[in-house]
Design goal:
The chain contains 18 helices and 11 strands. The strands form 4 sheets. The protein has a 4-stranded mixed β-sheet with strand order 1-2-7-4. Strands 3-11-8 form a 3-stranded antiparallel β-sheet. A two-stranded antiparallel ribbon has the order 5-6. Helix 11 packs antiparallel against helix 12. The longest helix has 34 residues.
């Protein structure tokens, strides 16, 4: 199973290969990873995925393995892995941070950080040498989400920031395959780095929390925003209004820090990967690139210098770009940054595409988006980059099958910030694609780093690896140039 993959390839690709070679008609199969892990029920069928999210007995509970996976990133229980009873009220609270109206109010801040990103890309274009797009973009996206979460700029694009750099380091050291191989936890150096980074992040966030709490104590109406850090305190303060202790309750403070760490992670990591893959797909599909630029010329005007101020003054324009949205969705389909896992339950069965009944008890139910999104049984021309599939009518052959697209998942535990992410990506593309041309530089990188092993997965050199979310291998070496230069 593993031998057919490049050594660094994401482990989900192995599950996807088994599904395609042996269970393409069923779309659902068991695999027992004892003794390193447990029983998995692997799903690549949209029909089964619909059953999962429609059944409250299974759709609400994350697997018991997840807290172990997320501990180095979040430091403790988080919205991502909380059990249903505790998750529900906090999900309602944090949903306010990503409401449609509030997201539009964040567009000016997105634009400001994107302008810094463009400045970085212009410098790299003038240097005319190979660079790594993913780490450059990670610092950009962590600035965007950091400002959104903490209501204060991080400045990671311009220099060192404790929270940003420790989070980026934590992800680099985060062990691959943590969900499936607990033996990976024996790495002592990793433990030390995780402890140190976690300590620094907790201090940084804790200081911000204490500062905001002091302001709220003095005036609970002051600086009320829907930033995550403020929503946490607003949820906490009504419970202690009468007493107003000098300091935050230590248990609540630790919980709040974990939630902020989670949102910093999920708000930047997969977004950076998606940006890299969008630029790659546009660079290798010139007709789609030309159509995207034409949409921006038509809807945003041909004066590039005016785009940033236009988006700041009319943020709703970011949500009025249909082909841009189609490009984003198609990139997320082809290179999904994550999957979906749920805890199997007694008396909960799933029916595969052949009508077989599959009990979920004692199994982790794992939907592999990377395979589901490319399975020939559910998609027409599945490996082609065709943004127009998101714009055709219901009777067209390219029209996606119901339940087959799950980039942000579906159901009660879907991605709470998907509206924010889609708006952010549209803003970024609006500000960049008519300024820059990207060219993948894997041939150049391979000459500098010769290897005897497999270099492609299903013919794709830009295959995905696990580094938090799924990222392009080798950090996406490329060159960037100014358009028309």
């Amino acid at each position: 199973m593993i031998d057919s993959l490049p050594r660094s390839a994401h482990y989900q690709n192995a599950f996807g290969d088994v599904a395609r070679k042996h269970f393409s008609k069923e779309g659902l199969f068991y695999i027992d990873l004892w003794p390193v892990s447990g029983l998995f029920l692997i799903n690549v069928s949209p029909n089964v995925a619909i059953q999962i999210h429609a059944n409250p007995a299974i759709s609400m509970e994350r697997p018991s393995l997840l807290p172990r996976f997320f501990k180095p990133i979040c430091g403790g229980p988080s919205l991502f892995d909380l059990r249903e009873k505790k998750w529900k009220p906090w999900r309602a609270i944090f949903s306010r941070a990503f409401s449609a109206d509030y997201v539009l109010s964040l567009v000016p801040g997105m634009v400001d950080e994107t302008l810094v990103y463009c400045e970085t890309l212009r410098k790299l274009a003038l240097e005319d040498k190979m660079f790594y797009l993913d780490p450059t973009t990670l610092r950009f996206t962590i600035d965007v989400i950091g400002k959104t979460i903490l209501n204060t700029p991080l400045g990671a694009q311009r220099g060192y920031n404790t929270l940003a750099d420790c989070m980026l380091s934590q992800i680099r050291w985060h062990q691959p395959n943590a969900e499936t191989n607990p033996l990976e936890y024996l790495n002592l150096a990793r433990k030390i780095v995780h402890w140190w980074n976690g300590r620094q992040m907790d201090r940084y966030i804790g200081k911000e929390l204490d500062k905001r709490y002091t302001e709220y104590k003095a005036d609970q109406e002051s600086k009320r925003t829907k930033a995550v850090i403020d929503l946490v305190l607003q949820a906490y303060l009504p419970e202690i209004t009468k007493t107003r202790p000098e300091k935050l309750d230590p248990e609540f403070r630790a919980f709040a820090i974990s939630q902020i760490r989670l949102f910093v992670f999920v708000g930047h990591d997969s977004t950076s990967s998606t940006i890299c893959y969008i630029f790659h797909l546009l660079a290798t599909n010139p007709k789609a690139f030309a159509r995207l630029r034409a949409e921006h010329d038509e809807l945003l005007g041909s004066e590039l210098s005016a785009v940033s101020s236009m988006l700041k003054e009319q943020p709703h324009l970011a949500n009025s770009l249909p082909y841009t949205t189609a490009v984003i969705k198609e990139a997320l389909r082809l290179f999904s940054p994550g999957g979906c896992s749920r805890e199997g339950k007694p008396d909960v069965n799933l029916i595969d595409d052949q009508g077989n009944c599959c009990p979920t008890e004692h199994a982790m139910v794992f939907t592999i988006h990377t395979e589901l999104h490319r399975a020939p049984a559910y998609w027409s021309r599945p490996d082609e980059f065709l943004p127009e599939r998101w714009l055709v009518g219901s009777d067209h052959e390219l029209q996606p099958m119901k339940g087959a697209y799950r980039a942000f998942e579906v159901g009660p535990r879907n991605c709470v910030a998907q509206g924010f992410v889609m708006t952010e990506l549209r803003v970024i593309l609006a500000c960049t694609v008519r300024q820059f041309d990207f060219k993948p530089a894997y041939d150049e990188w391979d000459k500098l780093h010769p290897s005897k092993g497999l270099q492609t997965y299903r013919g794709e050199r830009v295959y995905q690896i696990e580094e938090g979310a799924a990222h392009p291998v080798d950090q996406y070496p490329c060159r960037v140039s100014l358009r028309g230069a």
